[in-house]
């Protein structure tokens, strides 16, 4: 049984849907104060209303994580609302599929800013408050894509997700003096709203390529984040936790068929 985190304050960027919503839900269920940050108010309102059933207080702040002033305002608003900040989940990200041939230099910059520069800016703005909490946590949502595997069409995305890990290792060292840990979760294929549109045949093929024979749930990622935020995880820093049902394990199709 892990020490409860009720009363903690957590920010989840991209908490309005998908994996971020899974993380926000896991913390709200445990009685944490959750600030959800995203751009679209309508989607966020729907999520906030749904999360009111849990014991934690859940609020929304409209924020664009690729903009420094917006990230700064998010942190200040959160501390003003809840009085503290204990956990920063830099989860927001986007993954448009584009081959290198189709991709313009501006397309590249836009994904690197949205997924990688945003992680740096979230950490920079949150640092003083996480230090003050005495048990600060940074949890980055990276991916197996780029960090461990390659997928055609995701060169910019893969670079941003691998880049998060490079940033994380040095950030973990710089923030250690403030007793803040910095870790990353590397999800495999997780069942989010976007995946539903791909059709059952596609989803079945995806699941068949995973040793545990199912696509991950957002709860799988939420629970991992919860563990990293717990007191019991206080000695883990600068690490990547792969949550992929074994997707990156098989070294050949034959090995997968034997699972
Ligand atoms: P999603 O369902 O598309 O949700 C993305 C979230 O991020 C939304 O809340 C979106 O809200 C927010 N967001 C995107 N850009 C933003 C910006 N500039 N400022 C503020 N909020 C922004 O995506 P997801 O699949 O849950 O992915 C979440 C994270 O998990 C990403 O970092 C992704 O790389 C990673 N991941 C996902 C999977 C997977 O299988 N789904 C696998 C590995 C890693 P608004 O659009 O309203 O801003």
Topology:
Elements: E1 9-13, H1 18-29, E2 33-38, H2 41-51, E3 58-62, H3 68-82, E4 87-90, H4 105-133, E5 137-141, H5 144-147, H6 155-175, E6 181-187, H7 193-196, H8 200-208, H9 218-229, E7 240-243, H10 253-257
Parallel strand pairs: 1-2, 1-4, 2-3, 4-5, 5-6, 6-7
Helix pairs in contact: 1-9, 3-4, 4-6
Bound molecules: NADP nicotinamide-adenine-dinucleotide phosphate.
Provide a descriptive summary of the structure in words.
It is a single chain. With 259 residues, the chain is α/β, with parallel strands linked by helices. The chain has one domain: 3-Layer(aba) Sandwich (Rossmann fold), CATH 3.40.50. Helices cover 47% and strands 14% of the residues. It has a seven-stranded parallel β-sheet, sandwiched between helices. Helix 4 packs parallel to helix 6. It is globular and about 55 Å long. The protein binds NADP nicotinamide-adenine-dinucleotide phosphate. NADP nicotinamide-adenine-dinucleotide phosphate binds next to helix 1, strand 2 and helix 7.
CA-based gyration radius: 18 Å
CATH superfamily: NAD(P)-binding Rossmann-like Domain
Strand content: 5-15%
CATH class: Alpha Beta
How many domains make up the coordinates? 1
Helix content: 40-55%
- Tell me the CATH architecture: 3-Layer(aba) Sandwich
What small molecules does this complex bind?
NADP nicotinamide-adenine-dinucleotide phosphate
Strand order of the largest sheet: 3-2-1-4-5-6-7
Summed over residues and divided by their number, the pLDDT gives a mean of: 96
Distance between the termini: 31 Å
Q: What is the CATH topology assignment?
A: Rossmann fold
Q: What's the SSE pattern?
A: EHEHEHEHEHHEHHHEH
Which stretches of 5+ consecutive residues score pLDDT under 50? none
Say how many strands there are: 7
Q: How many helix segments?
A: 10
